[in-house]
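does this look right to u?? cytidine-5'-triphosphate version
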Amino acid sequence: MDQRIVIAISGGIAAYKTVGVIRELQKRGYGEIETILTDNGSRFVTPVTVGAITGKVPYTDTFESGRALSHISLVQPCGILAVVPATANILAKFAGGIADDFLSTAYLACTGPVLVAPSMNTEMYRHPATVRNIAQLKDDGVHVLDPDAGYLACGTEGPGRMPDAEIVADMIEFILHRHIGGPLSGRKVLIASGGTSEPIDPVRTITNRSSGRMGKALATAFALAGADVEIVVGTGSSRYPAYCRQTTVETALEMMNAVMERSTDADIIVMAAAVADYTPETVLQEKKKKNEDSLCLKLKPTADILKTLGTRYEGKKILVGFAAETANVTEYAKQKLAEKKADLIVGNLVGVPDSGFGVETSRAVLVQKDGTTDTYEKISKEKLGYHIVDKVQKMLEIIR
Ligand code: CTP
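got this back:
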C-alpha cells in the first residue's frame, strides 16, 4: 500500500501555516512529503520555501517539461492528498469536476483518500455556493477538516480559520493510517481518561492532578492501529485527537454512567482515568462560609468502574487498567489485576519528577493475566501507549 503524502497549497492567507504542518509531519517521522502549489498558492508561500523544507521541487505546472503526466503518477497510488488550506475556488473546482490546473487535475486522478482544510473569510465560507460545494465533496467521499472559529486575517470573527498545524497533522496521519489499514481495523476501543471532580459546594471540588496525557497517547495509538476509538473525557488539560469521538464528564458517577452505557459495543476498554475513590456525602447548595473552626468533610466511597467492568465482562472483552502508586508498583499492579479481573494493568510510579501526573514520561510496568511483566524504566507516554496497544493486539490474536 502506498504511503505517499501529497500536500497541496492553494491561495489562501493560511498558506503560511502549511509550512508548519509539513514540519509537524516530518517531526512525526514522515520524511517523504510531496507538494503541489497552485498559482495563487505560490503568491503566499514560494516554491523555494516549500522545496527547501521538503527537499523536493513542488509540483506547480501540468505542462512542466521533464514531468509529463506527473499529475497522474503523483497520486496513483498515494496515501493521502491533503489540500491545506483549501480555498473556496479549489473546493468549487473539486465539487464541479473542473480540471484546469495541476491540483484540480491531480484531484480527479487521485486514487487515495483526499482531505481538504477549508480556510477563508467567514462570509465566503458561509456562502450557499461554498456550503453546497463542501456538502458535495463530503458526498463524494472527501474528508473535510472544519475550520476553527476565531479572529481572521481580514479583521472579522467567525468560522474560517485554519486549525493549528498539530491538528491538521493529526488528521492527515489518521486518514493515512486508516487507508493503509491497521491491525485493529474493525475493533472498538473505549477509553476513560483524565481525572474527576467531585463537588463540595457550588464553588469547590475535590479533584486530582491527572492531565489526561496517557489517555490521549492511548487514543492516538489505538486509532493509528486502525481501531474505532471513543473517549470518555474527565478533567485535565489534554486536547484529544479530533478524529476520536468524545464525551465530557465531571464526576466519578458521571464517568461510571458514561463508560457503562458505551461499554456494550466495545471490544477493548481502557480505564486510564484517575477516578475519585471518595465523593462528598452531601453537596452543599450554598457556598460554605469560613469560620474559626476546623472543617470536617464527610466522604462516601464511589463505585469502582474497572471492577464493575471486570465482573461483567471478564473473558469477553479486553480490560486494561492502571495502578498509580507511590511505592511497590509491581506488587500493587498484580493485586489490582486480580481484584478487578483485568487482562492488563499498567502500573506506574507517581509523585516523582519523571513519572506520574502531568509529566511527559512514565516509569511503568505492564502486568498481564498470564503472569508476564514488562518493566520500562523511563519511557515517553506516547511510546508506552504503543507498547500497550501491541500487548492488546497480541491478546486479541490469542482469543481469535
Ligand atoms: N478505577 C475505577 N474506578 C474507581 C477507582 C479506580 O475504575 N472508582 C480504576 C482506575 O481507572 C485504574 C484502576 O481502577 O484503572 C486503579 O486505580 P487506582 O487509583 O490506581 O487504584 P484504586 O483502585 O483506586 O485503589 P487505591 O487508590 O487504593 O490504590
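The two ends are 25 Å apart (CA to CA). idk if thats expected tbh
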